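User: Hey, quick favor. My workstation is busy. Could you predict this chain's structure for me?
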Amino acid sequence: MYTQCPECLSVFSLGAPVLVQAHGMVICGHCGASFDAMATLGEQLPPEPFEALPINPPGLAVPLIDDVVYRPKPATPVVAAPAAALPGEDFSQLVFAPRFAQKTSSRRPKRARRYRGERPRRWPWLTVCAALLLALGAQLAWINRDYLVRDPLTGAWLHHLCNTFGCRLPLVAAPKQLRLLASNVETHPNAAHALMISLSLRNQARFTQPWPVVVVTLFDAGGHQLAMRRLQPTDYLDDDDVLHAGLAPGATTALLLEVEDPGDKAVAYEFGFE
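Assistant: No problem, here it is.
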């Protein structure tokens, strides 16, 4: 997901853990401004060139819920006993219960006889609970698959398990573990008004990760941003087999990029990976 700083218009890539940490509030790593990342949050960036991301519409009204599943019962009212008659009052209206009605039976209630074959069947509920726990565990593992693959212990176990059953783990992106070894920018030898950029990078992760999105930013002499270009792996790779295989752990590779020449004002370049 992507969001944009409203002060310096820098576009950042971020994930759900960053948004949850401070309820959407982040600090720009370029200008230091604090802003709400949810305002311009989006899954994809609009076609380039662009200056500002669209502002998301405000949230909807608070929903009303009326599907009641539990409501406490009101307390049973207590009926007060009649007051004793005062001297001189008419006692003819009072009703006395017979004396034998106050006697309680000394016999104990008979217990219901339980047959040995009438035990409650619990195995269907246990089976359903076990199936639900397995489904919940599978969902949690899928949500945290990136962390599990990155972890040396669980990642090695998952690779061994997939090799046994013939499956393939999804590639996990770790752009922070890509190291730029060298870079060179020169005029394109075969195309007018174009630049040829060569990059040398190494995958320092312990696992294979997909080819990164290369972000090229150009600045003038005053440090102001002139242009930014995001190059997808399909922009610099033509071999589909190499693209799907990903970048092996510890591998070093060279990338050749072709971008439009912004003119003589561009004197500084910055490269990033997503």
